[in-house]
Amino acid sequence: MLAALTAVFLCQLAGETLVVAAGLPIPGPVFGMVILFVFFVVNGGIPASIATIGDGLLGHLSILFVPAGVGILQHGARLEAEGLQIGATLIASTVLTIGVTGLVMRLLGRSEAKDEASGNG
Questions:
Q1: What is the pTM of this model?
Q2: In the 8-state DSSP scheme, what is residue 60?
Q3: How far is CA 84 from CA 38, 56, 65, 69, 76, in A?
Q4: TM segments (predicted)?
């Protein structure tokens, strides 16, 4: 179990190191997850020990929202002053994301239907 947790943290460290060294504009932990994903693809699946660690982390995911909640409380005055703009931006970006996702799904569904109709699927 400790080896699996160490592997996950080493992927995060590797991602952080590569992002800082290369000056990439993405978060290090995200790049670390890409490294971990590539490991899973090359390995042919997720090892049981890492799956157990992942389930444990997901079970306590709500703890990760505590810093965000503290940040919201800390910036209450700013939210009061700019709340309407922030709310409008959140609503617009959510609607845009749902729309783009729907269009992508429609396009992918059409190409899948064409493949099935031609006997390739």
A1: 0.55
A2: T
A3: 41, 38, 23, 19, 13
A4: 31-50, 57-77, 83-104
Burial grade of 114 (CB within 10 A; 0-12, 13-18, 19 or more): exposed
**How far, in Å, CA of 90 to CA of 94, rounded?**
6
Cα 17 from Cα 29, distance rounded (Å) = 10
pLDDT digit string (tens) for 67-106? 888 888 888 888 889 989 999 999 999 999 999 999 999 9
- DSSP-assigned states of every residue in 30-56: HHHHHHHHHHHHHHTS--HHHHHHHHH
Tell me: the pLDDT tens digits for 13-35? 999 999 999 998 888 999 999 99
